[in-house]
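User: Structure tokens for both sequences below?

Assistant:
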Amino acid sequence: IRKRALFLHVSLPGQVNGAEDLPRDFIFPSMEAIALNLITVMDHLRIKQVVGLGDGAGANIILRFAMNHPSRVHGVLVINIEGVGSGGYKEIIMDKLSGRTVRAGEELNTKNVAKYCE
């Protein structure tokens, strides 16, 4: 895989280990602006397509990128996305499961789902 893949980590301003604090007058780019500018990084490095991984703000950014450039994305894996609702992930998943219609003979083991969500 390493012969065919490139692992690229894009750091946001001020997020690099040991980075100095940003100046008070620094205007941090919006999530949308960062996402739209990822295509520039990909083009500069001649990367045709990516599998995007994102955590927190990175998840927000890679999802925005994928929505704006779907032909450049094989897939995305995101965790800890902000703004998905007022509950935690366990509550969100359990809410989704409780509203799920079950076909005859099909059951969900909510005890195991709850363990998975913890």
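Moving on to the next sequence.
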Amino acid sequence: MSEFEEVKASLLAWQEDLQKTQIGMDTFWVLFGGCLVFLMQCGFGMLEAGSVSSRNVVAIMYRNLLSTCTSAVLFFCCGWAFAFGETGNRFIGESNFFLRGLPDTTTSVTSTVYTGAKIFFQFSLCTTSATIVSGALAERTQDIAYASCWALFSSIIFPLAAHWCWSSSGWASATLSGHEGRIGMGVFDFAGATTVFVLGGFAALAGAIVLGPRKRSYRGKKISRFSKGDEAKESILFAGHNKVYQVMGIMILWAGWFGLNLASTGTLHNRGSRIAPRIAINTALAASGGGFAVIIADSVRQVINRGDKMKERTPSVAWKTYADRMHLVTEDIPDDAFAGYSLSYDLRLLCNGILCGLVSSAAGCAVIEPWASLIVSFVTGLVYTAVSKLLRVIQIDDPLDAFAIYGCSGLVSLILTAFFAKPAHVDEVYGVDFTRNGYYGIFYGGDVNQLGVQVAVGLTVAVWSFSLNLLLFLSLCKIGRLRLPDSESTSQDAKGHHVRAYH
């Protein structure tokens, strides 16, 4: 072998080693992000447990674990095949059932990772989306209804939406090769605003509508959350029992969101290392913007209503109910229980605002500037406030505001991304074909076509999730397998699990 051939062989070997190192690095990046997303299940569990009555905590945690188990089995059996099967059409994948016949590696536009890493990451997203629904069904739903919803979600609803938006052959995918059968140039949904959060949020709305409001036994009669009178509306009867759990859940979710958004790059070298810092900054700012928006909106509402409350000088409904239940005398009611004396800062609203901001970061965290991320999250926080109030007015009981937080915030942020997507970032993330054809932010001179794509895809996924789940819940209601018959008077922990969360 000549000296030239030896050098050539050495270079080829070095190139092969470098390629393997890059694949290994990208695979670790995706797996680590998937672990953080999976950790969000702990955050959801703590948030839900803190937001319900103390008598139903064990039931909530049990169902969260069961959701993960159900999603794992069904996604690995058929969900992956429907979402990312090697063969298929614009609507659905058709191969690799039970993870059979998988290639060693999966190649996208910018990276190559071992296939198992992508499967695990997508499973984490699937179980996250399915868990969102449980918040709207809390405290009044039979186990069979939960299991049916998760099964449908993990095997059909999420996989098909993921195929449409993220696979290399989906009709709404920005990575689809060629233009035939694709809407525009594909949707800007970097980390799952549509396929994870709109999907889960609109399923939650369907469940909350069919189930009806929660009820409690009080003074020998059944009180609905929306009953009129002394026990009206947001009384102590329906308040979450542990604010610490709620805050810890939010912080875990916030940490997990960095894994969700960052690992969606699919790579850590080349493009990934350049856009990852921007994604991390946008994620942090979005959460902050959503939190401030909700608190500001609530403070303005209190100031507007302050004059009427000052005239009454009577204790709030919540304090009267609490005092009555605790057998307190009038003197035990603190001075700040009298409405209208000062602003009240609601910890639950701040938590929900932060979640709204995090959801808003998913669609465009890679293609918008940090200042735009603040604007988008602030708008979604205001929309959440309005929708949450609307649901109360029309008496739809969503215990964790799952629809307002996830469904509405995901849809609004998806639309706003069409206004704020910066051309240079779009080139970096999706390729130069987008900007050459005018598919970037309207505020940067882009065409309105991308706005049409965002709206069409978002509404399609929303209708897809809402309609299938509505059909499921109505069917379960028809056969008497949806609502617990005695949820207002019986502890689910005691009746279903023969144990209490606290002793």
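User: Anything stand out in the second?

Assistant: Residues 230-234, 313-319, 325-333, 335-341 have pLDDT under 50 and may be disordered.
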